[in-house]
Amino acid sequence: MQALVESIGNGTLITDVAVSVRRIAIGFCLGCIVGIPLGLAMGLFRLVRAFCDPAVQFLRFVPPIAWLIPAIMWFGIGETSKIVLIFYMTVFLVLLNTMAGVVAIPRNQVRCAENCGVSGWQLFAWVVFPATLSYSVAGARIAMGNSFAAVVGAELIAANAGLGYRIVDSSQWMAMDQMFAAMLVLGLLGIAADRVARAISARWLSRYVHADPLGQ
Amino acid sequence: MSPRLTRQRHIGAMGYALSVAIILALWQYGSSQAIVPLLFPSPLSTLRVATRLWDEGRLGIDIVASLRRIALGFAIGSTAGIVLGLLMGSYRAVRIVFDPYVQFFRALPALAWIPAAMVWLGTGEESKIALLVYTTIFVVALNTMIGVSSVPANQLRAASSFGCTNWQAFYMVKAPATVPFMVTGMRLAMGNCFSTIVAAELLSPKDGIGYLIFSARTWMQTEYAFVGIVILGLLGLLVDRVFVLAARHLLKRFLPP
Amino acid sequence: MPADSGSIEVRDVSFDFGSGRPAVLQGVDFDVAGGEFFVLLGPSGCGKSTVLNLIAGFEHPTQGTVVAGGRPVEGAGRDRVVIFQDSDSLYGWLTVRDNVAFPLRVLGVAAKDREKQAMAALKVVGLLGHEGKYPRELSGGMKQRTQLARALVLDSPILLMDEPFAALDAQTRSILQDELVQLSIAMRRTVLFITHDIVEAILLGDRVGVMRAGPASSIKETLAIDLPRPRRRGSAEFGALYEQIHQSISDEVQRALQREDSLLS
Question: Of B197, B204, B193, B215, which is closest to residue B115 (Cα–Cα)?
């Protein structure tokens, strides 16, 4: 507890949090921007799905941490390698969920729209996209949770700032209280991020959610 | 099977093979264009290194080491998680006591515990298995708990109208009705286990797939990392398939149609 | 509106889900005149909804032709609006008003006119005051009223109704049935109505087509219901018609059961 107050006081903890959160935010946003369109495309077009499916099915079982060593060798131990890992993980989770969302659109919703004579573009913008949104958001929420694990893993092994770095650095100096302070902050941060995501969904996205795919 | 279905399946398989071939070709071409070929190995050189490591026996050792740890940690963690989840779902008192911890520890990734585990339990097997148990237990417990609370009320009412005791209602209705949720939780946890074990083996390299990937950096041999990544993808896919198939066959009557 | 824009011709239609699979329909053949209320009645699983899907253009016949409003059916179109049995065709992210206005949005109607027409349709189905709600906040009957309003905003000559009241409780169902009778008298559009409920068929239809039990189902007989509207469920003529149709259908159900028995043994 004392260590927590101390490390907040001298600013190291705040810097560490800022460094980790920044990495997560950039990687996560880029991942959503790429993952949602790709997932929609894979859900809608058989050709895209046929081409991407083997790679996606294979890569989704490769944990981001496994790419750490190549990422470091390619991008150095700076920001880029961590952001790439988070991006990688977010893309897959968002993509797979979005694709599942496209498949799960009630058939009658599409039929009703066809009945009204929609164009392909209208069907996409007015039916497919809104009907899929709750799935994309669910994927993004899981990705957000996993982002914390990925960034900590990366910082444990190769970094010179961030919460993960603080944890491993403290343990090497046997400063266990400082280590636990960093871990406590990490856990609370994870919970807070999930709460914020949930609040945003409840406030602005509730009408898109007919059945919460997370079941929570 | 009708000839049309068989033909469709053939076309599907051919499309799959074609897609894999295109991706491998792009990979090969990409690596041949890389500025430093050392850093971006081609699929062929990855395969070459993989066969060499296999012949030396190292690859087998690493795979077995990682899988053994996962099997042990996953089994212990799942068992404990199911028990905890059932108790939390069934008894308010247990839920009130444990819920904050489960919520917090689920948010705190296992990877963050690696340094602590190594300080307390050393760099051997114990710390790695403890980390895998940690990875598994909360995900399984949480899913099981949600499962217990979503048992259809009328199934429980029917049980009580037949005069079931609380204990009978628990093991004859609640527990079996919760099986699909346990399976979901375990499948999620299995994926996370691969992530945890790689990180743990990266941090205390001795053997395992994480060690194999780590040695890429030590020897500046990116092929080692790629061999490890390909094996992780294949193993993950295989284990997930086996898990789903096993669940489908062994637990068929518990799962939704 | 020309008289035949609401006509439907189904000519010797057969249908299966891919060659090698058993036929769902075989030799279905009937006509519906413009403005007529035609009920297709049959035991569950006989392929009634498939007939509707063929007319709607969601499925295509393996053999035979379907003509609506004088033109062969090639795909879905807003001249043949469908009201589905499940209310999952309502868009969960749109309010009742926006759901009803959806077809107009597709047509490119300006937002203000859209709203006015949607509100008018909601008034017809008695949903004024609920226009700001989302589908999940509605009861089953209100959801089906919303679907009806959404169909009414388009001036389509043909309404295709696929067991729209089957999932409702008995009270709500009979209220909606009575309202539909009033509405169909007022609007004079062609209605093809699918049901497995004999009372509903007699209550609503100008004519009732009774289907055989599947597979390879077709129309067994067509009866004209020459009773003045509104029809009283308790009248003697009603009872006589009920008995007649009931006999016809239970023969079919018996045949289906016997066939299943012989398959099982």
Answer: B204
